[in-house]
Amino acid sequence: MTGRISEEKLQEIRERIDIVELVSSYLPLKRSGANHLGLCPFHNEKTASFNVNAGRQMFHCFGCEAGGDVFSFLMRMEGLSFPEAVQRLAERAGVPIEEQPRSPAEERLIQEREALLRLSQAVADFYHRHLLDGEEGAAARHYLRRRGYQGESVRQFGLGYAPDRWRALGTHLAEQGLDSRLAREILGLIRSGSDGRPDYDLFRGRLIFPVQDSRGRVVAFGGRVLDDGLPKYINSPESPIYQKSKVLYGLYQAKEAMRRSGTGIVVEGYFDQLALYRAGFHNAVATCGTALTVEHAQLLKRYCNKLLLFFDQDKAGRKATFRAMQVVLAEGFSVAVVEPDSDGDPDSFLASHSAENLQHYLDRARPILQVFLDDCLARHGDSIEGRAQAAEELIGVLVLLPSELERDLYLKELAQRTGIEPSLLQRKLAAKAGGSGSLPPRSASSPPAVRRRPEPLPTPPGSEDKIQEWLLHLMKVDGDIRRRVAEATPEALFGDDDRRAVAMALIASCDGEGSLDEDRLLNALNETQKELLSGIIVKDAPALAEDAARIFEDCQRALERERLRERYRQLQGRIEQAERNGDGLALASLQRESLEISKRIKQRR
To answer: Global pTM?
Structure first.
């Protein structure tokens, strides 16, 4: 399904699908009041925090913050795109899909993509047959057997062999009546000869690794020589069906194991992934000749919330580990580093060690920031300047941690190991967070408990994010609060983009009488915003409506206090910088503003 689906059709599918029945087909649920509870399928837990609300047709986990509607659930469970989830649920509900017409340009792009996918599969079949049968593939079969790979691995991953001939693939495509122009001009599997010479194959005399997307469709290829020739590996160029920054080798085979365990192992090479899979570690994936990207991390986030980075144990591998750290911490993963005693890559390690031995190292993987802290201190040395540089480097990464407790513990350890005052490190961290223009990601925590008769909020309920969630609670249960937020403008109250989008959707999804149209609301939100909303809907708080106006005013005051506090923390960092620079004028101005803000904070207590 590729066309656009109307809001009315999406609403019809939601109404026909019982979310409790859908979720129960994947995991057991027990009724608890208005909700159904179960163990979350998206992270490991022993106490049920996964809530399904039948009346609202929403789910939410208060452990990992996953949430949304029936489409969101199926997308996460099966790794589907939104259109694929709509199609699957439409079939389940017996709802015919009447797609809105596509433009001629859209139709051409879709047809070209389908033709490229069919051609890629035909090429994969050609290479696979040459590996399994025939004399040309004998050397590749012997090479794989020598490395311990038998027929099962070959078939499961569709491994192949490119004949050591200039035009083997081109000739095959012509004989089969397939479009070699697509293979040449778009997929780059055939290269144009120069000076009147004939075209020639990109891959020749190489072991072939078909690269599949998360749905198991072949989108590209990697090729390895069977000897010590160079280059050792070559890869397909990017194309309309393959962007290496968005594809992970082995994900199709690994996604279920990642979802069950909540953990993914990330390696760098094809054989690294295959070696782990063969040894029973089915939750491993590999990057395709590129560093780990934001798109990779977002793809992995569909299936797990913890990553083990198992890169080469050399200087380049350590550098790649720390590059990946910046990406995956920003996406909210728990990240650890696998550090076996022996040098080399995962494939080399498993060639001389047992799976049990590797499990020992996986169980003892160290948190990546602990590894980074040790590395920073070792690299910069024990001089005063070196310790200061190490502290600056670590603080630049600590802002990515979602847990305030973890940040505090790392700051204390850094203070102990460098001799720097903890208060100074804390100010540096606050200045760094303020300078980045964003606060660290929100932590996975439940919405605040609400008493039957809420008291005024004497202090902020934890953070600006938490205050904004209180306001969203109020907007959900009280139409007058929605009107007041609209008058105050959501931009003034919601600094976070996603929470502001939920607030604006709550306002826009009301009918002429001010009643909330929840289907219209859901259709206006993306998956991240649905997760925020589901935490409100599943754990509804009708008690908030009893004194909504007073709580709204308390939240406004608390939000202003929190922003004043954040500005005050930023100013301390800038004051410190002005003192170091000897800038008297700037220092006086900053101190005046700091004093004024301090007074305003006290006035609002």
So the answer is: 0.65
